[in-house]
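Morning!

This is the sequence you dropped in the shared folder:
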Amino acid sequence: MKPIRNSARAIILSDGRLLVIAHQDSEGAWYSLPGGGQHPGENLEETLKRECIEEIGLPVQVGALRYVRDYISAHHEFSQEDPDAHHVELMFECTLLGDPAEAQPSNPDDDQLGLAWLPLAELAYLRLYPRRLRTLLTQERDPLSNVYLGDVN
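The structure's back. Tokens below.
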């Protein structure tokens, strides 16, 4: 089994929209939060800032931790693609520092098609991962609510 991979993800909201990374597969478009894997010796805030520069092309101010999830691939529909994957993702509220119109990835992931601003009102109809975000980001947030989402896709 592979080692557990920590990653930091950015929840960037503006004018009722969520900034995401756009991807494409045989089923069509799908979306994920900007961010990625933590390097040894790097704290999570440094990880998130580096990843956002690479994937968005703009710096971010890292705010509060909002959600944590496990992703154990053997328990989900993509298990055949990467059966030994176990990720722990920490999702932080972030503020984009700079003009969103100037967003241009400096080192995008291989499967990254681009960036998109998804209207929160339409999240329920889109392939956003983790899926649980589709409802969480459109509901009023209780500051005492659970941060840990469990093993979800």
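Headline: The chain has a mean pLDDT of 89.

More detail when I'm at my desk.
O.
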